[in-house]
Amino acid sequence: MDEDLLARIVVRLRERYVLPEAGRQAADAVVRALDEGAFVGRSGTALAAAVTEVLQTASSDRHLQLRYSGAPRDPAVGNEWDDPEVLAAYWAEQDHHNQGIHRAERLAGNVGLLVIESLDEPEGTGPVIDGALAFLSRCAALVLDVRVSNGGAPTGVAYLVSHFVEPPTRKLLDVVDREGQVVMQTWTQTHLSAPRMARQPLFVLTSGRTPSGTEELAYDLQAMGRAVVVGETTVGAANPVESVVVDPHFLLRLPTQRVVNADTGGNWEATGVVPDVACAAAEALGVAHRLAAERLLASGAEVPDAVRRELEALVRT
């Protein structure tokens, strides 16, 4: 156990956490746990897990975490995302994950499926999203699957959402700092490389492990009445974070901002995104596929006989 490390964490909580009173409470909880011997004999990943449990119990903030890193980092960096080498390594790794876009598939009844693992800045994800949506653009309905995902960035979410709404632009979020100042806004885009799918029925699949930026995708589309969310209530981690190097081997994931949705005036912090149609995550795709088929048949749109038979079979399942 490193008391100096814990002291540095306490200082940052009191000085930087986005909600000052909650930051003080989390800091006090760490001090109490230290005094009670909760961290005695712990180091490395065990210490990180113990501190994280104290922090999240005190704050209910699932983004607030201490992480152990076997590879040493320079504390002088501060926020590790300000380190160009860390950023370059991250984007290189994301290339091996197709920039977070896992699969695009046409299902029975001409319903599209886009499986998303993460939604990072559009500089990286944009071209992959464009290719996937170009492939799916002739589908009559679309399902976005974020059940097994890692979150993302507000700008990446805004880029994807842009394809599902008509111009002109509309605001999605304000990002607000500890002092209450708006430091960033996200808006949908007018000019896109891939076709828009602004009129097709849209569904978002969620699970109890859908976090952060991929939660935002479900929240934003649900808030504007654009999509039906199917599955489980999500994690409830809304506050944007810095990844602070507090020790060569420890990173403090520290929320320093909060988001305010333009439609609701709130966010999904602690509550998660509550689905419109609740079901087990494992069943969500089947449920959404059937709902899409019902919507398409009810629309009265003309479709080839083979596709109609597929839709009717889905409704009967």
TrEMBL record:
CDD domains per UniProt: Peptidase_S41_IRBP (cd07563)
**Alphabetized Gene3D superfamilies for the sequence:** 2-enoyl-CoA Hydratase, Chain A, domain 1, 3.30.750.44
Q: Which SMART domains match?
A: TSPc
Residues folding into a coiled coil are none
Show the Pfam families listed in the entry: Peptidase_S41
Enumerate the Gene Ontology biological process terms.
proteolysis
Which InterPro entries does the annotation name?
Answer: ClpP/crotonase-like_dom_sf, Tail-specific_protease
Organism superkingdom: Bacteria
Molecular function terms in GO for this entry? Answer: serine-type peptidase activity
Q: Where is each Tail specific protease domain found?
A: 83-280
| Protein name, UniProt field | Tail specific protease domain-containing protein
